[in-house]
């Protein structure tokens, strides 16, 4: 059975030491959906919600969240992120969010990609809550993670 890397021999929380790992180009992609009422989708399309441009604000929130992940999740390492993409697209049933986070480092950026997707979705929820009481956030998923040796 594989051991948890964030738990020490004494059973206490442990931040993993990645100091001896070779830096690599690391990238992660995540995804999530928020289901909305048809009228809410129309309001977003028309940019008619009182709080402003929902999709743009959610994308900015996702970028900010990726950069602050280690402040939110206690055992995450602070990373030198080189790129964050957050794309919010209207779909028939709501909004889908796709994120991509990249860094050069000794540990992956999965948590940053997932955090970006989560916060983008929560931002949409916050901006639409006055007009839509049936919103559902779902399918927050890591789609891909890669690491490539530096050349």
From TrEMBL:
Keywords: Lyase, Molybdenum cofactor biosynthesis. The keyword Lyase applies. It catalyses: (8S)-3',8-cyclo-7,8-dihydroguanosine 5'-triphosphate = cyclic pyranopterin phosphate + diphosphate. It is an enzyme of class 4 (lyase). One of its GO terms (biological process) is Mo-molybdopterin cofactor biosynthetic process. Its EC number is 4.6.1.17. GO terms for molecular function: cyclic pyranopterin monophosphate synthase activity; GTP 3',8'-cyclase activity. This is cyclic pyranopterin monophosphate synthase. It comes from Labilibaculum filiforme.
């Amino acid at each position: 059975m594989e051991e948890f890397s964030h738990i020490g021999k004494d059973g206490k929380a442990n931040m993993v030491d990645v100091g001896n790992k070779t830096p690599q180009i690391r990238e992660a992609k995540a995804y999530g959906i928020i289901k909305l009422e048809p009228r809410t989708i129309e309001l977003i399309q028309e940019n008619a919600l009182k709080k402003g441009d929902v999709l743009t604000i959610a994308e900015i929130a996702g970028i900010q969240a990726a950069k602050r992940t280690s402040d939110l999740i206690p055992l995450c390492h602070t990373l030198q992120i080189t790129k964050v993409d957050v794309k919010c697209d209207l779909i028939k049933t709501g909004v889908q969010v796709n994120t991509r986070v990249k860094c050069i480092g000794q540990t992956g950026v999965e948590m940053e990609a997932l955090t970006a997707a989560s916060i983008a979705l929560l931002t949409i929820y916050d901006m639409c809550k006055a007009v839509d009481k049936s919103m559902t956030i779902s399918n927050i998923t890591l789609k891909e993670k890669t690491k490539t040796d530096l050349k």
